[in-house]
Amino acid sequence: TSPLHPHTLLLNFNSCTLLTWETYPLFLTGVTFPPEYPASPETLVKLTVYDVRDKARDNVSKPQSVSFLGSATFSVSDLLRSKDDQLTLNLRSSDGVLAVGTVLVSRVNMGEMEEGDMDHITADVQQAQKCTLVCESSQGTPIDKDNSPLTGAVFKNPVCKVYKFQTVDSKWMLVREQMEECTLSFSIPRQLLHLYIQEDMRRIQELRDLGELSPHWDNLRKEVIGRYGQVIAAYQETLAELNKITGPSFKPSCSKAQRYLEFIPINLHTQRMRVTCPRQTDAFYDVITVGAPAAHFQGFKGGGLQRLLSRHEAEKKSTAYQCIYYSPEHTAKAQEVLHSVGHLQPLISGLADQLLQAAQQHSMAGLREALKTLAGKTEQFVHALKDELVKSALLALHTAQPGYSPPQNPGHSPGEDGQAPLKRQDSIPCHKEYDEEEWDRVWADVAKSLNCVIAMVDKLQEQEPINNNQEQPIPKQVLADVITSHNPEGDWREQLCPLVVRLKECVAEVVVRARRAMTFVLLQEAACSIPQGLFLKQRRDVVFSQALAALACGFVMRLYAGMEDKGFLRQLHLVGLVAQFESLLSTYSEEIGMLEDMEVGISDLHRVAFKITQAKTDDPCDLQPVVIGRRDHYTVEVPLPRLAFQTLPHEIKEGKALQVYPVLFNVGINEQQTIADRFGDISLQERINQRNFEILDSYYKSLSLPCFQTQMDLKDLLGTLGQNVVTKKRKNVEILWLAGTICRRLNGIRFTSCKSAKDRTSMSVTLEQCALLRDEHQLNKDYFIRALDCMRREGCRIENVQKNIKCRKYAFNMLQLMAFPKIYRPPEGTYGKVDS
Fold first, then answer.
1. How many CA atoms lie within 13 A of 564 on its CB side?
2. Are 682 and 617 in contact (CB under 8 A)?
3. 225 and 209 in contact (C-beta within 8 Å)?
4. Measured between alpha carbons, how far is 712 from 716 in angstroms, rounded to an integer?
5. Is the predicted pLDDT of residue 16 greater than 60, yes or no?
6. pLDDT at res. 177
7. What is the pLDDT of residues 767-782, one digit of tens each?
8. Is-contact 165 773, C-beta < 8 A?
9. Comparing C-alpha atoms, which of 723, 715, 720, 773 is closest to residue 746?
């Protein structure tokens, strides 16, 4: 609205806080003319420069002082006619007389990066030198053309920055950062809460289905059901609160301890760096940043999950005087058996019905095919349920029924209610009236029934009047003779039906017994755990929810980026992907509890598989990933539009489960880690790094794809990483660099975390980006530190800080930074004392 021109654009450039022009004589920013205000040759641009300083160093709560430095005006036509698309302008004082510095304005043609001809005007405010770094900021920029249109369904609110850096051969590269929120931050936890509630409700019903129990066991059952009810009520309340939330798709760091947000990952964002170099294909580098998955609301007074679970397991063994102690392996087996029961019984029943249908149609080929599948699933059923744990649990359940009188052992005092205290699964008292062979007879009945079905099908095939050749149809008269024959064997369905019904009855009897036995095992586990065990289960649910939301975000981002990469897709369905989590937590104070939570949460991700499905429509709502399953195994279904789905390999389209191998590497870098290194205990960090190196090395050795066999440097990198994880060296960040490099070479998914993914994470992400520019794109070594400072000062990460705490300063103070490795320290003026 300026009288100069109706589309005049005024740009205010603020110098860096706490810095003088002598120590930092440049400031980088830029502008894009938006579509609603298109630039023309007559458009005038006015640059106004201010010096902004804090009155008190490192204290953002104090007011800032602002002083005018100078201004300059130019027209777009001046820039278009200039040599090399650059203008050097003098900054003039307010009276227009005194020159107080210079401004270098550059025109950057972004057509190399995006379709269409989009021009950007960038400006460097200088006093004494010429700057070749260009930083362009754009809020809400449309997605790259190389980003799949699918991203709009899952990723939103992009923040983009563009830089121009010089290579070693004096060429120029354009670098674009793009940071986005992920809708899965909230949708995955909501789905998990639904599944948690449903699973616990089923558990309550299964406990009630145990039937009549003696007073001792019935009281334990009521107490366990009551505890489950409390958990369900709490989860329902949390879910109701989450369903009310609208707005941003991420949880800011300042909300990490809020009760109703405890299932939501902290500050989950994706970040992509795109590099465009002359005569080279564009390159992409992705990383997901997220706060360490941890139960911040519950606190870390007693440590984190790893310590709490170990302590609780030891206490269960020593105090299980009211119940039978089952090991974690036994309870996991019980859960697996219950899942197999729920999955295989309806499957066997359906296959049995298919067999009868084929018999009714007199289709010998259909009969044989149905029988083959039925026999296979029944064999799988037997393998899953015929277990010694089921047999011993049936005996234990028998002892818990009314009227049972356990034998009195000399010197063995009964419990308070007259029941003998049962401590260990292997010391369950025998009961002479209980027939231990009954369980074996039940299984024998299943086998006999299946054999009878098989024998009958063989007999029917022998009675077939014509050789069962599908190319030769059976004449109607012959078929009629068979059907109307006085031979009772003429009606296939009639002959098979009693045998099939008997098979289904035998399977149902096994299922009833196995389900009750395994439910009784889980009753013991819950009873021995009251109340601490259920609190730990809730804590584990919280941590896993945060970890799964991050993993699903990373998987979707990696899938979308690799849709046209046949080698990646082949690797995906043949061996799966590595998901490498980098953590910067210290092993001291509360953060050691966070790391213990994170270790268990990341490890639990091995229970997750992914499946690609075809979306019903291309609507964004139908492209949201869906979680199904139970606590010991979840599947995340990722829908794709029909056209995209059809391009996938056959194995993926057929619904093959896609595995992810999570690994965690941690190196603390802050002042608390200094204390831990010198006076504390760093064994947790050492154990985590060594254990996860073994997982990563095992994954690499399992690869048989040619593209990896030819990469000898991968083997060398793994060897170096292996040496580093056993080397006693303080703040050995080379472990993180090596692990990240190996992950990228393996087409893996990269994650970076600290407490809130805001400050230390920002230092790590920007360092990784600049290292990639140096190592992969020949960034001029003279530009490395300048590029690093520019990204930290003006890039996406400082925008992330702004989004989280409404302040553009990293939460470090000078004392803290003295303990940081130098390469992880932000530039002057970008940090201060702020709440994290």
1. 4
2. no
3. no
4. 7
5. no
6. 95
7. 999 999 999 999 988 8
8. yes
9. 715
Question: What's the one-letter identity of residue 170?
Answer: S
Measure the CA–CA gap between 560 and 760, rounded to whole angstroms.
28
Q: Which of 1-5, 515-519, 747-751 has the highest mean pLDDT?
A: 747-751
**Alpha carbons 249 and 242: distance in angstroms, whole number:** 12
The pLDDT assigned to 489 comes to 44
The per-residue DSSP string of 793-820 comes to HHSHHHHHHHHHHSSSSBS--HHHHHTS
- Give residue 479's pLDDT: 40
Percent of the chain with pLDDT over 90: 46
- The answer to whether the beta carbons of residues 164 and 172 sit under 8 Å apart is yes
Query: Do 149 and 241 contact (CB within 8 A), yes or no?
Result: no
pLDDT tens sequence across 414-458: 333 334 344 444 333 444 455 666 777 877 888 888 888 888 888
When pLDDT is averaged across residues 42-64 and rounded to a whole number, the result is 64
| Domains contained in the chain, CATH given | 1-129 (no CATH), 260-318+532-824 (no CATH), 322-407+415-529 (1.20.120)
pLDDT of residue 261: 96
Q: Find the largest Cα–Cα distance for the chain.
A: 120
Please report, for residues 112, 543, 779, 783, 810, the alpha-carbon distance to residue 117 in angstroms, rounded to integers and kept in the order given: 9, 47, 26, 28, 36
Token pair of 448 as six digits: 């006999």
Q: What DSSP assignment string belongs to 390-454?
A: HHHHHHHHHHTSTT--PPPPTT----TTSPPP--BGGGPPP-TTS-TTHHHHHHHHHHHHHHHHH
Contact 515, 206 (CB under 8 A): yes
Q: How far apart are CA 833 and CA 823, in angstroms?
A: 20
84: left (phi over 0), alpha (psi -120 to 50) or beta: left
DSSP-assigned states of every residue in 334-345: HHHHHHHHHHHH
Beta strands in 140-226 (DSSP E): 155-166, 172-182
Mean pLDDT, range 500-508, rounded to an integer:
89
Which pLDDT belongs to residue 27? 54
Tell me if residue 754 is catalytic: yes
Q: CA 770 to CA 477: how far, in whole Å?
A: 83
φ/ψ of residue 229, rounded to 5: -60, -40
- What Å distances lie between residue 436 and 386, 425, 431, 510, CA to CA? 14, 16, 9, 15
- Cα–Cα separations (whole angstroms), residue 76 to 1, 31, 85, 121, 569: 17, 13, 11, 9, 47
| 712-746 b/e (C-beta count within 10 Å ≥ 16 → b) | eebeebbeebbebbeeeeebbbebbbbbbbbbbeb
The three-class DSSP label of residue 580 is strand
What pLDDT is recorded for position 237? 97
H or E element in which residue 21 lies = none
Average pLDDT, the chain: 81
Q: Which of 754, 770, 790, 796 is catalytic?
A: 754
Whole-angstrom Cα distance, residue 735 to residue 582? 10
Weakest-pLDDT range from 292-306, 346-360, 455-469: 455-469
Structure tokens at 168: 């070693």
Q: Which helix (H) or strand (E) holds 666?
A: strand 658-666
Bond prior to 34 in cis (omega within 30° of 0): no
Taking residues 508-526, what's their average pLDDT?
86
Predicted pLDDT at 278: 79
Q: Which two tokens stand for residue 246?
A: 């609208």
Q: Starting from the edge strand earliest in sequence, which strands make up the sheet with 136-139, in order?
A: 136-139, 155-166, 172-182, 269-276, 283-289, 749-753, 577-583, 658-666, 608-614, 633-640, 626-630
The span from the CA of 545 to the CA of 589, in Å, is 24
**Which among 820, 584, 587, 590 is positioned nearest to 681, based on CA atoms?**
587
